[in-house]
Amino acid sequence: MRVTVLWAAQAALGLGAALAALGAPLWAADEVNADEIIRKFAAKELEFQQARNNYTYRQSVKMEEVEGGGKWEEIDDIIFTPEGKRLEKVVYAPVISLHHVGLSPQDVQDLRNVQPFVLTTPEIPDYDIHYIGKEKVDEVGCYTFSVKPKKMVQGKRYFEGQIWVDDRDLQIVKTYGKGVGLLKKSDDQAFPKFETYREQIDGKYWFPTYTHASDTLHFRNGDNVPIRMTVKYQDYKKYEGRSTIKFGDVVEEGKTPPPTKKQ
Length: 263
What we know:
Elements: E1 2-3, H1 6-10, H2 17-21, H3 34-52, E2 55-65, E3 71-80, E4 86-92, E5 101-102, H4 105-114, E6 127-137, E7 140-149, E8 158-166, E9 172-180, E10 194-200, E11 206-218, E12 224-238
Antiparallel strand pairs: 1-5, 2-3, 2-12, 3-4, 6-7, 7-8, 8-9, 9-10, 10-11, 11-12
């Protein structure tokens, strides 16, 4: 997220096999085999990622500048065409009224890939992952890990922070951190810390359903901009390939958006 300088514009994220068979958490044993847990949850995450690609859902984004009342809102439906092609369809996108910050390509990458963070087997070599301990998230027993990119490649965004992995399903149920990546020296950008929660949607996979950020963005030029952001992922439906799934019509600028289901 880059700063928008108003004056310049105007002038210028074991117990052993028996218990394992009963679904006992791996940390029921005296020693936690962190490498084995990482290997297993990464494989589960890859399976989940592939499954999510076959679901439609609605994504609602709202970001507000705490001081000044600037706002950005957008509602998108992730759907499939009759030919089975995955499509992101804008349902509601009023004029952006942010005064102190501007959206950058990195913000869009974070929204799509970092905030609903998935850590799969092919991505494990890109990160330093360290086991922290055991913790509960809403009464769900979890393994907690710190995650940090080993080396960053220009143009790619990464997650840096902590993840909580369900001790039975071995899938990520919560992330807390921020998006990071290489920037040009001339870029004056700052990115908020966020928290993303997942819910078990289909009895098998944990899907991201809610992201929230409440942070102050500190820019090199001295500006400090407090922001709030909420992202909701709703109405997950598995695409069966029989018909087009339609949540709402595209809204033309200046018209009222269609009603959405409240959670």
